[in-house]
Structures are given as structure tokens and as C-alpha cells.
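Q: My labmate handed me this sequence with no annotations at all. I'd like to see what the chain might look like in three dimensions before we decide whether it's worth expressing. Could you predict it?
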Amino acid sequence: MSKSQLKAYLLEHRNDAEVFHALMDKIASEPNQTFYTVKEVGKLQELIEDRQRLKLVNNEQLSISDEETDNSIQFS
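A: Here is what I predict for the chain of 76 residues:
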């Protein structure tokens, strides 16, 4: 299972320790991990907010792109 599939499954089966450990193993095996201390929680919050803004901008761009494609279709 992919990491996102494991996360989705775990949200529905919160007491499944085996799946939890499989997800933690998958996360631990990823390269370039960054860990934050309690003192760095502000920086982590900034990163989360930046990521959310980026997703929002990307979704808006996709929406605009879809509208432009829909508007350019001409029927004869």
C-alpha cells in the first residue's frame, strides 16, 4: 500500500496497530526527513500554512485552466 492509502485506511481503522507500524516504517524510510522540536513548532506551523496556500493557489489555477478550456470549445 502507498503511504496515502495507509493513512486513509488508518483513519477508518484507528486501532489497527499493524497498519500504524507499517505507516511509521514507510515514513521512517523516506529520504530527507526533517524533524522539529517543541521549540520549533512556530516554524512547523509556517510550513503547514505555506503548503496549504500553495495547494489553494494550484487548485485555483487548475480551475481557471479548466474554465479556459471549456470556453475555447466551439461546436459547429
